[in-house]
Amino acid sequence: MLSxxxxxxxxxxxxxxxxxxxxxxxxxxxxxxYSASESEARYASWRASSAEVDVINSRNGGWSAAxxxxxxxxxxxxxxxxxMTPQNCSATHTRSGWHAVHDAKVPKSIDWRVxxxxxxxxxxxxCGSCWTxxxxxxxxxxxxxxxxxxxx
Length: 152
Prior knowledge:
Blueprint: H1 16-29, H2 36-58, H3 75-82, H4 112-115, H5 130-151
């Protein structure tokens, strides 16, 4: 399984010398420090994340990936430290009988970035309150659609 990469400003580590420079810069940017015994394992995970970022970005899929503060973790470490077990709550249930509106007039595509509707990506950390992030995202979207877009 590949290591974790995220959407931020990215760079390609390149040669071993430039990779070490990029690694040191990344550690400084994210306030990372390791024991001598841990350093090489973290560097290996970071290199795997860098390689994953390069593969994703080479696809030119309309978005780009980059390294973030979790790029020194393996996927298993990230999952164990940041992801929670599935919850049985209303947000995870599906409603039967829901039907799409077939006569709605919608554009073929909207680039919400260009429209100014998107805020920066938020990091909820390990608080387990993902519902609050989706709630504020919904409120921000509603505000944009009702107030900002109409004023443009």
